[in-house]
Amino acid sequence: MSQQELTSYRLSSLHDPTDDMLHAIMEQVAESARRSTAKFQAELHRRFEQIRLSGKS
User: Fold this and answer.
1) Tell me: the pLDDT tens digits for 32-54?
2) Which of 21, 26, 17, 19 is nearest to 4 (CA)?
3) Phi and psi at residue 41, to the nearest 5°
4) Burial code of 5-40, b = ≥16 C-beta within 10 A, e = fewer?
């Protein structure tokens, strides 16, 4: 499935996604969740490090 087909598809009650479409959609959701989690963990680490360093003063 092409990226254009995937981005043009909208979930609706009129058309069920094919198995391939559903798989591609779920892969994108999973990748987005992985990026979001990594970004959150990096920010959390940065904040803890900032607290740790400010406590050494």
Assistant:
1) 999 999 999 999 999 999 999 99
2) 21
3) -65, -40
4) eeeebeeeeeeebeeebeebeeeeeeeeeeeeeeee
